[in-house]
Structures are given as structure tokens and as C-alpha cells.
Write a structure and sequence with these properties.
Elements lengths: L7 H17 L2 E15 L6 E3 L21 E2 L2 E2 H9 L4 E4 L23 E3 L5 E3 L5 H11 L2 E6 L6 H12 L5 H8 L10 E4 L12 H14 L9 E4 L7 H11 L5 E8 L15 H12 L1 H15 L6 E9 L18 H16 L4 E7 L9 E4 L2 E4 L1 H9 L6 E8 L2 E3 L5 E2 L1 E8 L2 E8 L6 E8 L2 E10 L19 E2 L3 E4 L2 E6 L3 E10 L1
Parallel strand pairs: 1-21, 2-5, 2-13, 5-8, 8-9, 9-10, 10-11, 11-12, 12-13
Antiparallel strand pairs: 1-16, 3-4, 6-7, 14-15, 16-19, 17-18, 19-20, 20-26, 21-25, 22-23, 22-26, 24-25
The structure holds alpha-L-arabinofuranose.
């Protein structure tokens, strides 16, 4: 049969109509939120932070000294503290990172003028004057209202040095070290729960084998004492990303001695040699970054399965105490300072990752995004007296409603945004219930298309619903000192409720949180 020939104009019109039709077709995800099926509590600490002596995270970003014209309390900048209080930072890891295994705590106590200097060999080779030490860090935690998480120096230090640091911080005895603390201005001991024996022992923390590390953990553990009124939560150095053999060995040798095992996983767009620009990227880069971020889920699952074999009662927590997107450093900055901008892409990764942690709330007890100020995927960027909040900060602010809440079961059926190199769902969802309120956080990973989410709520009657959304016109949108509000949350109203079904349309590349106050 002969196909009739259509005039070219008809073909153009038909194609345009088809394209318009496709554009008009809004993709849909469906979910059932079981409001009466509370799961484990979402540990607040998965919203934790990490601050290392690296670049301008501590010096400039947090610590400006008492004589600075930048408003401060005892040398700690007030604008940064106020912003951190707002997002309810639960726990803060310090002093590193790689820095921790070269840090000698005694150099950071006593009158500042007398504190020895050192070279920060890991990060830019700059001189560290130790003006920010134990007392200043504890003061920061008290000002922010968070718990300290200390990483001891196993790599280049000694068991004795770690043991004495614990005594200095937490003992109320009439002992030489507790009295030294008193002479340095702190009468009462501090409460220090989280203490890690070294950092990345498989790399910058000493290039150890898992067997050697696990034996050293056991040895150190004996000398890290619980002084009256203080109970340590001992964290062993865990694997680098998907190094399951490390987890297996360390759990086999020391699993019964530890309270927690750490895991480090960074999102690298295409590996260490092709991290790419933080702000100039294509949609292919967006996809690759999200796919790498989603690898966090199978990686956690893999380590959980091993931990379950050695610790079926799930007494040992998994602490993802370094995570985040690692881009190329901002051009023109010291590459050793790991300074990078933060866009809508980073915000989406943050929300996806927090959802993964919440999904694994039975084992994941802490997360510490790297890092809090001016380094890697930061909450806050500073430049002299100026400060700007990043899109990632806003995600932590919006999702803080989940902190400590009971996770609710969610059955989600969603199209995929990307299949390769790792599957990325078009929609990610997580829900929790606390104080009579239900919170449902949602992510649309597609940078171009909106998505409709049809959510049936069981076990509760829909009452009032409100929402907040974070989105931006472009994937690369970010906040600058001159335009600090380019990416910021706004009220979310694109939803309707009929009976117990809630239908929301998420804008492209967005993170939204719905708050439901059930009726009756
Ligand atoms: O966060 C930056 C560095 O990344 C940390 O110092 C180290 O632990 C990791 O390799």
C-alpha cells in the first residue's frame, strides 16, 4: 500500500502537537503512607555535622578571635552560631578528618600565646596556631546546642594521649589532668559521649590493614575510661565506601568491643579524577552525580548485612560520619582548602541522602555531612564578615522536622529518572510522625519535568495540610554574597486533598515537605 504524502507543514504541526501532548503529560508517582505503622525512631544525629581544621572551616568560618570586628562570643562568630541553632545541629564531629591523626590535643590548651604551632600537612600546608582547641570547640558546641563528637589520634599519636584527653575532658577527680583543665578555665568536666579511635585508618589515618586496626581498637578501648557521670560511645573506624572486607574483618575482631562503626562515602561525579565544577555542569553531570549519590543506599545495605551477621541484635550503630558531594575546588582558591559552591544539585543530593539514612534508621545512628562551613558540601559560606546560607542548609532546615520522630512506612511506586550507572527514582519520599503531626518529605529528581504525587494516607484522617518547597529556575542556581536569596524555601501550595488522598505536583528539581495535622 502506498503511504499518502503529507505536505511538510502538516508534519511539522503534527510533531508539534505530539510534543505538546508529551509536555502536558505529567508523570505520576503513587504512594501509600501508613500513618499507624511507626518504625524505628529517626536518630536526630543523622542530621549531624563535621568541622575539620581544613581551609576556612574553623579559622574564619567559625573562629574569628575575641578581638575581631566580626560580632562574636568568646571568639566564635555569632552569625554562624545563630544559623546553626536554627537547623538544630544535634552533634558536631571534630577535629578531623585526616587532621585528627596529626593533632596533639595538648598543643590546643592553655594561654593561646603559648600554644605551639604546627603545619597542617594534609590541607594546604598552612601554619596551624592551635588557637582553636578543646575549650574553644566545647564552647562552640555549647553555643550551638549540640553534642561533641571527638576523633582521637591513633595514627601518629598514642593510646596514652587519647586516654589522657578523655580524662582531661570528662574527669571530675582531683587528678593532675582534671586540675589542669580547671586551671585552664573549666571547672566542671564536659560530657563527651562520642569518641572515635582514629579516622580513615585504611588511608590518611595510618594505612593500616583491618586486622592491625581492629587489634589497635581493642587495645585503645581498654584505656578509654568512663569517668563518673560520663559514658563513652566508642566508634571504630569503618570502611571506605564499598570496602566490605574491611567491615567484615573489623566486626569479626572488634565488633563486640565497639558501640559504633563509621562509614565514609563521598559523591564524586565520575570518580576522583573527574569531579567536575560545582556550578558549571550539564544535565549529564546532574544525572551522574545523582546516580553516584544513590549508591549510598546499596553501600549501607551491604555493610548492614555484614554487621547483622556479627551483631544480629543491632547494638552496634553505623555512623556515616563523612558524606557529601565533592566537586573541584572553586577556581582561584587554594586547592587544599576544598572550597566549593553549592547549587540546587547539592540540595537534591542532600535530601536523597537524608532519606536513605531515614530508611535505614534501625542501623544508621549518625550522619556527619562534610563539612559544616566553607568546606565541601557546606551549610554556610563566609567571606570576611559576610555569610551566606547554601541550598543544602535549607534542606537541613526543612527536613529537621524528622529529627527524633518515628519513621512511618511508605510504599512508593515511582518511575525512574535514570537507570545507569545506578538507578535514580524520579520521586523519593520519607515520612515520620511526632507530637501528633505527620511530615512527608518529597524529592523530584528531574530537572525539567514536574511530577504528580498521589498519596493515600492510611491510619489517620487528613486534617490540615501545609507545605514548604525548595526549587530554582536552573540546576546551577546557588546563593552568593551578592544574591543570598537566589535559592530559598517558599510556601508550597500545589496540592489538594480529597478524602484521605493527597495529590501534590512537585516542580522540577525540588525538595518539598508537607505537614499533615490529622483530624479526629
Ligand atoms: O573531609 C575531607 C577529608 O576527606 C577528611 O579529612 C578525610 O577523612 C576524608 O578523606
Amino acid at each position: 500500500m502506498k503511504t499518502p504524502k503529507l505536505p511538510a507543514i502538516c508534519i511539522v504541526i503534527a510533531l508539534a502537537a505530539m510534543a505538546a501532548g508529551l509536555r502536558a503529560q505529567v508523570l505520576t508517582a503513587t504512594l501509600t503512607l501508613h500513618a499507624d505503622e511507626p518504625g524505628p525512631a529517626i536518630n536526630r544525629n543523622i542530621y549531624g555535622q563535621f568541622s575539620e581544621h581544613l581551609g576556612t572551616c574553623i579559622y574564619g568560618g567559625i573562629w574569628v578571635g575575641e578581638d575581631s570586628p566580626i560580632p562574636n562570643v568568646r571568639g566564635i562568630r555569632s552569625d554562624v552560631v545563630a544559623a546553626l541553632r536554627e537547623i538544630r545541629v544535634p552533634v558536631l564531629r571534630w577535629p578531623g578528618g585526616c587532621f585528627a591523626d596529626e593533632y596533639h590535643w595538648r598543643n590546643g590548651i592553655g594561654p593561646p600565646a603559648g600554644r605551639p604551632k604546627m603545619i597542617n600537612t594534609n590541607w594546604g600546608g598552612v601554619v596551624e596556631d592551635n588557637s582553636f582547641g578543646t575549650h574553644e570547640f566545647m564552647d562552640l558546641c555549647e553555643q550551638v546546642g549540640c553534642e561533641p563528637y571527638i576523633t582521637g589520634n591513633l595514627g601518629s599519636g598514642s593510646v596514652q594521649e587519647m586516654m589522657e584527653w578523655v580524662e582531661y575532658m570528662t574527669s571530675d577527680a582531683d587528678s593532675p589532668l582534671a586540675n589542669l583543665r580547671r586551671r585552664n578555665g573549666r571547672e566542671q568536666p564536659w560530657k563527651v559521649r562520642y569518641f572515635a579511635v582514629g579516622n580513615e585508618a585504611w588511608g590518611c589515618g595510618g594505612d593500616m590493614t583491618p586486622e592491625f586496626y581492629a587489634d589497635n581498637f581493642r587495645r585503645s578501648n581498654v584505656f578509654l575510661k568512663n569517668y563518673p557521670g560520663n559514658l563513652l560511645y566508642r566508634v571504630a573506624c569503618g570502611p571506605n565506601s564499598d570496602d566490605y572486607a574491611w567491615t567484615d574483618k573489623v566486626m569479626a575482631i572488634a565488633g563486640k568491643r565497639m558501640n559504633g562503626l563509621s562509614l565514609h562515602y563521598y559523591t564524586l561525579k565520575n570518580g576522583w579524577n573527574d569531579k567536575g565544577s560545582a556550578t558549571e555542569f550539564s544535565q549529564a553531570d546532574w544525572k551522574a552525580t545523582l546516580a553516584q549519590a544513590m549508591r549510598m543506599e546499596p553501600i549501607i545495605r551491604g555493610h548492614e548485612a555484614i554487621m547483622d551477621r556479627y551483631d544480629p541484635a543491632r547494638k552496634v550503630g553505623l555512623l556515616v560520619d563523612e558524606w557529601g558531594v565533592w566537586h573541584d575546588s572553586t577556581p582561584g582558591t587554594n586547592p587544599g582548602f576544598l572550597q566549593q559552591q553549592n547549587t540546587m544539585r547539592d540540595a537534591v543530593v542532600a535530601a536523597l541522602t537524608l532519606h536513605i539514612f531515614q530508611e535505614h534508621a534501625g542501623r544508621v545512628v549518625m550522619g556527619n555531612i562534610a563539612q559544616m562551613v566553607n568546606v565541601l558540601q557546606a551549610m554556610i559560606l563566609t567571606d570576611g564578615p559576610r555569610m551566606v546560607l547554601t541550598p543544602t542548609y535549607h534542606v537541613f532546615d526543612m527536613l529537621k522536622v524528622h529529627q527524633g520522630a518515628a519513621r512511618l512506612a511508605v510504599d512508593l511506586v515511582t518511575p525512574r529518572y535514570v537507570d545507569e550507572p545506578a538507578p535514580v527514582p524520579l520521586v523519593s519520599a520519607s515520612a515520620s510522625r511526632a507530637g501528633g503531626r505527620i511530615h512527608l518529605s518529597l524529592v523530584n529528581t528531574d530537572p525539567d519535568r514536574p511530577v504528580r504525587v498521589v498519596c493515600a494516607v492510611t491510619g489517620a484522617r487528613l486534617g490540615t495540610v501545609g507545605g514548604t518547597v525548595l526549587t530554582a529556575p536552573t540546576m546551577q542556581a546557588h546563593n552568593t554574597f551578592d544574591d543570598p536569596g537566589a535559592v530559598r524555601p517558599s510556601p508550597f501550595t500545589d496540592f489538594s486533598a480529597a478524602g484521605d488522598v493527597l495529590t501534590a505536583t512537585l516542580p522540577p528539581k525540588s525538595v518539598a515537605v508537607l505537614e499533615i495535622t490529622p483530624r479526629g
